[in-house]
Fold this sequence. Notes:
Elements: E1 8-9, E2 28-34, H1 41-56, E3 65-71, H2 79-88, E4 93-96, H3 101-108, E5 114-116, H4 123-136, E6 142-147, H5 156-167, E7 171-176, H6 180-192, E8 198-200, H7 213-219, E9 224-226, E10 238-241, H8 244-259, E11 274-278, H9 279-284, H10 291-294, E12 299-301
Parallel strand pairs: 2-3, 2-4, 4-5, 6-7, 6-8, 8-9, 9-10, 11-12
Antiparallel strand pairs: 1-5, 10-11
Helix pairs in contact: 1-8, 2-3, 4-5
Amino acid sequence: MRRRHVLIxxxxxxxxxxxxxxxxxxxxxxxxxxxxxAASINSASEIRTIKxxxxxxxxxxxxxxxxxxxFAAGDYGKFAELARELIRxxxxxxLANVTGTASAVRQVASDMPVVMIDVDASRDxxxxxxxxxxxxxxxxxxxxxxxxxxxxxxxxxPESLRAAAQAAGLSVTPIxxxxxxxxxxxxxxxxxxxxxxVHIMLEAATGDLIDRIPVLALQHRLPAFANRxxxxxxxxxxxxxxxxxxxxxxxxxxxxxxxxxxxxxDLPIAPVRELWVNRNTARAIGLTIPETLLATAVRxxx
Length: 302
C-alpha cells in the first residue's frame, strides 16, 4: 500500500473490535508505542494531548480506558519486543508515533488495529522548505539536512530534499543523528564546512532534542528549518508542517471509532500544514523575514 501523508489507522491491520466498555470495571486498554524516551518533554506533551483528545471524544481514563505506554528511547530495534508486551497486556488498539512500528506489530498480531500518529514529510513540504530558505536567505547556495537514519522514511529525506534543492540551485549535505552527542557533532562540522542553513527532519526520537537544536543553531548563527511548526516556539527560525498537538488530539476520534467497531482503513484524517516563524531568532542571527512571508505565517514568535 502506498502510504499517504495523513494521520490514519493503517488499512489491512484490523478487524472489527468490541464497542467501548460502558462499565468502569471493564475499560478498554489503549497501547502507545513511542520512539522517544519516557522522561522527555516531547513524550510527556504528546501523551497529555492524546489523552485530551480521547476525553474530547467521551473516553475518560480509568472509566473507559487505561493507557499502556511503551518507549523505545531511540532504539527502534525494540519495537517488536515492546509490541509483544502490549499484546500480552491485552490492548485493543496501538497508537504509534514512528512509521516503522506498523511492521513490528504485524509480526506479533496481524489483526491488531494500529493508529499512526507520525506524518512523513512530503515532496510538497520539501519544495516549501526550499522556497522559504530562498525567500529568507536569497544568497545562500547550500544547506545541511539532519535526519534519523534508524527511522524508515528518514533516509529518503536527504535525497528528496536534494531533488527539490537542485532545481533551486542549492546543494545539500546529509547528516544522520540520533543522540544528543551526535547532534552536537553534526553542528561542530559546520565550523569546518559552513552551510547557509540547516534543515532538520524531526520524528519521535529526534523530537526529544527539539529544545536543544535551536540553541546550537543560534550558537552557530545558522538559520534552522524543521518539519514541525512548534520548532519555532523553541527558538528555531522556521517550523513548517502539521502541528503535533492537532495530530495528537485527532487520535481520540480515530480510537473512539475503532473501539466502536469501525474499520481502521476507513478513517483517514488529513493534517493541516502550518508555517510558524520566530522573528526573535531572525533578529539574533541578523536576518530579516520578508513581510510577504510573515503574512502567510499562522504564528509569529516575537
